[in-house]
């Protein structure tokens, strides 16, 4: 699989740099067609995986890009991040934790309950049940909440259920050192990492140094937030020795050209 | 990290969204910390049991023995139970560190029993809070404005205690207004607000004394993905603006504004769950830092909230 994974933050107006940037993304009327162009050009470059969060608009965006149709042969596979945490947070604020968990079963039909695999897939994917989904990732808010509560069994069940449904489990976390202590084995751990240290928990660097070589690992390591919301110049990625410890790097941009430039750096022989 | 006792024990009143978040954040910063979550509802207890591991226990009621053993307590129950929870701690002889999520209707004298008292207004722990306070201490502040926009829709009633109010704007005021008023309380004490607009998803408050203060809260906004803030301070010689991600200073002396950002400064924490400010808040709580001045501010925030609500009732 390609070392570069395409991220989705600009497609949904998520910016960790400023709310203004976020509002500008959302206000862009061509957001979905632009996103569609970025996804298609990423596929042409050889990027094989799109990491996309479950938002209310995810299914619409994926359909716009051509997923679920024969055209999707040229598109990257999908790593779907679940649950829709923005929606869950809103439900939890209005109706409590119970209401937010109930929201997970929103798309399930009564008939699903007699087919466990279909029921679990429905809970996992919601209305984003596209045939191109190969990986399912647990959002960092959910993973880190479970790590803090020491709920190892919940994370293990997530991995087991994801595999039972035919997908590869990915755990997204800001606390990778703590996740490793829990001895949960997903197919990949995706954590925040960048040169400025923004949002990178203190133990992450030590965790990366202690990690075994890429070839010896049973669980892949993916890096996200590598540009620290645009503060790190993408040319600097080339000089970053720690970044080389990761198996894959998630990059996101609203411009195909920028994705291409980052792709060239990360897949270059010197990297 | 330093703990006052050999065996730290965290007691959390209320197993809802914030109770679980506090328990988890404490667990992230202090691995192996023993935690007991107290929730009278069966639904709440089942939920906490399902979502937690071996070192988190769930109880329907709290015993005096358990309270005595606790070193840290978080009260994240609905506000009407806050004082009752505090009194049960006093009666059982708790002397450790207490965090009350939003101290509403808590008598000050009861809190003098504890080693340290903290509140859950996280903006006070934001990386840019210190610089804002310093700006106000060093200059002549002429005006302050705070605006907040969220996609959360407060016209949707879910039967939960948070949304149980028929007064337009009340839930928005409790959820976000309280944080904003607490922030203002720390920068411009004794501000007296007038309510200009009070609707379910729109609140506008104004003050002219001691300085001009404007507050606008907009909910159900399609323009934002989550809550976003904009705080503007005007001084006689400069203007400071922060959206809590960037911090910009416009001054007549310099032609270009000076911009600092959390990303550029590489702001991070030891462990993370819901933003660095929540990590910093929890770290201070676990360290039992003396934040009594902040807590008094939080109690005064409650008084301001009640004054604003009184005006909203009159408007209604």
Walkthrough of the structure:
The complex is a heterodimer of chains A (271) and B (316). Chain A is of the alpha/beta class. Chain A has one domain: TIM Barrel (Alpha-Beta Barrel). Helices cover 39% and strands 15% of the residues of chain A. In chain A, strands 1-8-7-6-5-4-3-2 form an eight-stranded parallel beta sheet. In chain A, helix 2 (31-45) crosses helix 3 (58-65) and helix 2 (31-45) packs parallel to helix 10. The mean pLDDT of chain A is 87. Chain B has helices spanning 17-29, 42-50, 64-69, 82-92, 108-111, 129-138, 170-187, 262-265, 276-286, 292-315, and strands at residues 9-13, 34-38, 56-59, 72-75, 97-100, 116-119, 141-149, 194-199, 202-207, 212-218, 228-235, 238-242, 246-251, 258-261. Chain B folds into two domains: 9-121, NAD(P)-binding Rossmann-like Domain (Rossmann fold), CATH 3.40.50; 128-266, 2-Layer Sandwich (Dihydrodipicolinate Reductase, domain 2). Chain B is α/β, with parallel strands linked by helices and 316 residues long. In chain B, strand 13 and strand 14 form a beta hairpin. Chain B starts with 8 loop residues before the first strand and ends with a helix. Helices cover 35% and strands 24% of the residues of chain B. In chain B, the strands form two sheets. Chain B has an eight-stranded mixed beta sheet with strand order 8-9-10-7-11-12-13-14. A six-stranded parallel beta sheet of chain B has the order 3-2-1-4-5-6, sandwiched between helices. Chains A and B meet through helix 1, helix 4, helix 6 and helix 7 of A and helix 1, helix 2, strand 11 and helix 8 of B.
